[in-house]
Specification:
Blueprint: H1 2-15, E1 41-53, E2 58-67, E3 74-83, E4 87-96, E5 105-108, H2 116-122, E6 124-128, E7 135-139, E8 144-148, E9 152-161, E10 168-179, E11 186-187, E12 189-195, E13 199-200, E14 204-213, H3 215-222, E15 229-236, E16 241-249, E17 257-261, E18 271-278, E19 284-293, E20 299-300, E21 310-316, E22 319-325, E23 330-335, E24 338-342, E25 346-351, H4 361-365, H5 400-413, H6 433-437, H7 461-467, H8 492-503
Helix pairs in contact: 5-8, 7-8
C-alpha cells in the first residue's frame, strides 16, 4: 500500500512539473499573435512633377493626367490637392483610361479633344480647386463617395498664371482617400450653376443673381420627384469677387442660405454639408455673385483678369445637372451703391454614366482594394514645408522695388490677403509698401515685434512669418506662415533677399 501511494505521489509530482509538491511549473506558451484587422481605408498619392513658367506667363487649356491602372472600382471619400503656386484654377475628372489617349503628364487639351462636359459624361467629376488655393481638402460626410470604375484615369484642365517678375517652378500633388465598399452609403453625382453673362461696370460694385428651376428638368429626366440631397458646395470667382450666396428656392428650406463668402482670399472655400441638405419639395437654387471693380474698364466673363461666377456641387442625385444663365443680363438698378443684375437660368439633366453604381456584393465581401502606386503610396498628401536655413544668398537686386515685383505683388497682394480692398491685418501691400511695413506694429497677433524693424531681421515679424513653417506669436502660439495657404515657404533666395533688405536698414530705393 505504501509503495502504491508513493508511486501515485511521484506520478502527480511529475505531471505538475516538479519533484515532490514544490516543483516550478513550466512557462506558459505565449498566445498566438493576433492578426491585424483588415484595412478599411487607404491613401493613394500621386506627384505630377514640376512645371516652369516664365515671368508673368499665363497658360490656358493645359491638361494633365494620371492613369490609376485600377483593376477594380475604388471609392473616394476625400481628395487633397496641394501645389507650390501658380495654379490659378483646375477642374478634375475621372474617365476611362482609353479616353484622351496618350502618355500621362501635361499635354495640350485640344491635342486630345478634351472638354469638360465630355469628361463628366464619360466618367464623373472628382474635384475642383478654389481659385489660387494651394492646399485644399474636399471631404464628404461619412459614407458619401465618388466612384472610380475599373481601368480609369484622372484628368484635369488647369489654368496656370505666374504673377511674379521672375521664373516660377511649381509642383502638384493629389491624394485620394479610399474607403472600403462596405462603408459606402451613397455614390455622389456632380452638378453646376453658372452665371455667364457678366458685365461689371468700371469703378463699381455689382451683383448678379439667377434663380434656377432644377425640379422641372430633374423630374423630366429622372422620371421621379425632385429629391436631391446636397453634400458639397464650392464657389468660384476670381480676384474681384467679394460676394457669393446660394440659397434654396421653395419647399421646407425656402430661403435657407447654403453657403456664403464676402471676400476673395485664395483659400479652400468648399463647404461640406453634414448632414446633407435634403432638397425634396424645393424648386431649385438661387445663385448670386458679387464683384468690386476698381478698374476704368468693364469686366466680363473669362480667364486671366476677367471674372467668373460658378458653383460646383456634389449631391445624391439620380442624374447630372447643369444650370446656366447664358445671356440676356439685365441691370435692375442700384441698391445701396450696388448695381443689381439678374438673368434667366436654363437648367437641364444628363443621365449618369452607367458605371456610377453602388458597390456589388462581391466588392463588399472582398478585402479593400488599393491600386498599385509605383512606390508613390508613401508620399505625404501635402507638399512638405521646411524651415529656411538662412544660408542662401539673396537674389539680386536687394531693393524694395525688387521685393515688390518678386514677392509682394505676386505672393501677397495678388493672393488677395494684402490688397487695398480687404487688407488682412490692416496691411495693404499695393500702395506705399515701406510706410505700411517699417516701424509699424503687428495688428493680427499679440507680439512686441514690428512688421519691419530696420537693421534687425530677427525682430521683424515679416521675416519671421516668411522664414518659419510654424512661426509663433508673443504668447508662444503657432500662427500661419506666409504666403497664405501655401504648403511651403518661398524660395530661399527670396527669403534671403527680405532678410538682407531689412538688415540694410529697409531702405526706400
Amino acid at each position: 500500500m505504501k509503495r502504491a501511494l508513493g508511486l501515485l505521489i511521484a506520478l502527480f509530482s511529475a505531471a505538475c512539473g516538479g519533484s515532490g509538491g514544490g516543483g516550478t511549473p513550466p512557462a506558459a506558451e505565449p498566445p498566438p499573435a493576433m492578426e491585424p484587422p483588415p484595412a478599411t481605408t487607404a491613401q493613394l498619392t500621386h506627384d505630377f512633377g514640376e512645371y516652369t513658367l516664365g515671368p508673368g506667363e499665363e497658360i490656358n487649356a493645359l491638361c494633365i493626367s494620371w492613369t490609376l491602372a485600377n483593376e477594380k472600382p475604388v471609392y473616394v471619400e476625400s481628395v487633397t490637392v496641394s501645389n507650390a503656386g501658380s495654379y490659378h484654377h483646375s477642374n478634375w475628372f475621372v474617365v476611362p483610361e482609353t479616353q484622351y489617349a496618350g502618355p500621362d503628364g501635361f499635354f495640350k487639351c485640344s491635342d486630345r479633344g478634351f472638354d469638360e462636359l465630355g469628361a463628366a459624361v464619360a466618367g464623373t467629376v472628382i474635384f475642383a480647386q478654389s481659385t489660387q488655393s494651394q492646399v485644399e481638402e474636399q471631404s464628404f460626410a461619412k459614407g458619401a463617395v465618388i466612384k472610380i470604375p475599373p481601368r480609369h484615369k484622372v484628368v484635369a484642365d488647369v489654368h496656370l498664371l505666374n504673377p511674379n517678375f521672375r521664373t516660377q517652378t511649381t509642383s502638384l500633388r493629389m491624394s485620394l482617400g479610399l474607403i472600403h465598399p462596405k462603408d459606402v452609403a451613397v455614390v455622389l453625382a456632380p452638378f453646376r450653376l453658372s452665371y455667364l453673362d457678366l458685365d461689371i461696370p468700371p469703378r463699381s460694385e455689382a451683383h448678379f443673381t439667377t434663380d434656377c428651376d432644377l425640379a422641372t428638368p430633374y423630374e423630366q429626366s429622372a422620371q421621379r420627384p425632385f429629391d436631391i440631397k446636397l453634400y458639397w458646395v464650392l464657389p468660384h470667382y476670381h480676384y474681384l469677387g467679394n460676394y457669393f450666396r446660394v440659397t434654396v428656392i421653395g419647399g421646407p428650406h425656402d430661403g435657407e442660405l447654403i453657403h456664403s463668402l464676402d471676400t476673395f482670399n485664395a483659400e479652400a472655400n468648399g463647404k461640406a454639408l453634414d448632414p446633407p441638405l435634403d432638397l425634396t419639395g424645393a424648386r431649385g437654387l438661387r445663385l448670386t455673385c458679387g464683384y468690386g471693380n476698381p478698374r476704368d474698364e468693364r469686366v466680363g466673363w473669362g480667364i486671366g483678369d476677367q471674372e467668373m461666377c460658378v458653383m460646383l456641387g456634389f449631391a445624391d442625385s439620380a442624374i447630372l445637372m447643369d444650370a446656366t444663365m447664358p445671356s440676356g443680363n439685365q441691370m435692375l438698378g442700384v441698391e445701396n451703391g450696388v448695381v443689381e443684375n439678374a438673368g434667366e437660368c436654363v437648367a437641364y439633366g444628363v443621365p449618369k454614366n452607367p458605371a456610377q453604381t453602388m458597390p456589388s456584393d462581391e466588392e463588399i465581401a472582398a478585402a479593400l482594394y488599393v491600386p498599385e502606386s509605383d512606390g508613390e503610396g508613401e508620399l505625404p498628401p501635402v507638399l512638405p514645408c521646411i524651415d529656411d536655413a538662412g544660408t542662401a544668398l539673396p537674389e539680386p537686386p536687394v531693393t524694395l522695388t525688387s521685393l515688390r515685383e518678386s514677392i509682394f505683388d505676386g505672393s501677397c497682394s495678388f493672393q488677395a490677403c494684402h490688397d487695398a480692398q480687404f487688407p488682412a491685418g490692416g496691411l495693404d501691400l499695393t500702395g506705399d509698401v515701406r510706410a505700411q511695413l517699417v516701424d509699424q506694429p503687428v495688428l493680427s497677433y499679440p507680439t512686441d515685434l514690428l512688421r519691419v524693424a530696420p537693421g534687425d531681421p530677427d525682430r521683424s515679424w515679416l521675416y519671421r512669418v516668411l522664414s518659419s513653417c510654424e512661426p509663433r506669436d508673443g504668447n508662444g502660439n503657432v500662427v500661419a506662415h506666409m504666403p497664405r495657404n501655401a504648403p511651403a515657404l518661398l524660395d530661399p533666395p527670396l527669403i534671403a533677399k527680405v532678410r538682407a533688405w531689412i538688415a540694410a536698414g529697409a531702405p526706400d530705393d
